[in-house]
Amino acid sequence: MTVNKNYMNPDFEDDAPDLSTPEWQAKFARAEVRRGRPKSDKTKVSTTIRLSPEVIEHFKKDGPGWQSRIDRELRRIVGVD
Q1: Burial zone of 21 (CB within 10 Å; 0-12 exposed, 13-18 middle, 19+ buried)
Q2: 6, 12, 26, 65: least surrounded by Cβ within 10 Å?
Q3: Alpha-carbon distance 70 to 67, whole Å?
């Protein structure tokens, strides 16, 4: 029989607080839940666009962020920056 190396002795006192007490439940009820980063005033729209391989290669050669670089160039061309 193999010995479990991760065995915890049950005689040790659990030092974690009991989160089911009314005091903790009240704290959880009052806590504001915010997930992820804050919402932007100007959100981008997800879309699909077909570009020539040369265009993709040009923007990808500088590494991550190539989609943002395409967006920046398109904004410059249409004059919205």
Answers
A1: exposed
A2: 6
A3: 5
Sequential pLDDT tens for the chain (81 residues): 677 777 666 666 777 888 899 999 999 899 988 888 888 888 889 999 999 999 999 999 999 999 999 999 999 999 997
pTM: 0.52
Q: 28: helix, coil or strand? A: helix
Phi-psi sector, 26: left (phi>0), alpha (psi -120 to 50), beta: alpha
